[in-house]
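Ticket 4471: requesting a sanity check on a complex prediction with zinc ion. Repro inputs:
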Amino acid sequence: MLDVLACPECREHPLKLYTFVEVEIKVDRGVVRKLIDQYGGRGLICSLYCGYKRSLVDSLNESIDLCIACLSRDIKYGILQCGRCGRWFPIIAGIPIMYPDHIRLRSRRAQALERVFLKRFRERIPYGALDGESTDRLENRKEDSVGR
Ligand SMILES: [Zn+2]
Ligand SMILES: [Zn+2]
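Returned structure tokens:
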């Protein structure tokens, strides 16, 4: 269900997903059927981009099994990266933290979250995944981001 997330700076979507921790959750077929009827314009719950299939919905065939597989994946930790500007956003405890720059670079809370995240997952971030913005962005920007 990450299909409608866009980069808060340049509005690019879909974002590239790197999954670090995911859990399987049981989903009820009847509930999925209802969700498809309510939200699935094209017979799928994902409306633009299916993160499970890593494809635009336009190129997928409608199938309830596909939606069940997609919804069964609960991504707890990972990163989303914008293919246009290179910014990346952590997924922490299942929640994508999509702060725009003016918050990300100034909020101590946002920076603390990212620091804890990087401490745990720095090794897992694939080489090259953060092109355009290094994993050290917090360290690099410390001076111009704090206290304004
Ligand atoms: Zn999907
Ligand atoms: Zn962007």
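Notes from triage: The chain has one domain: 16-145. Leaving this open until the requester confirms.
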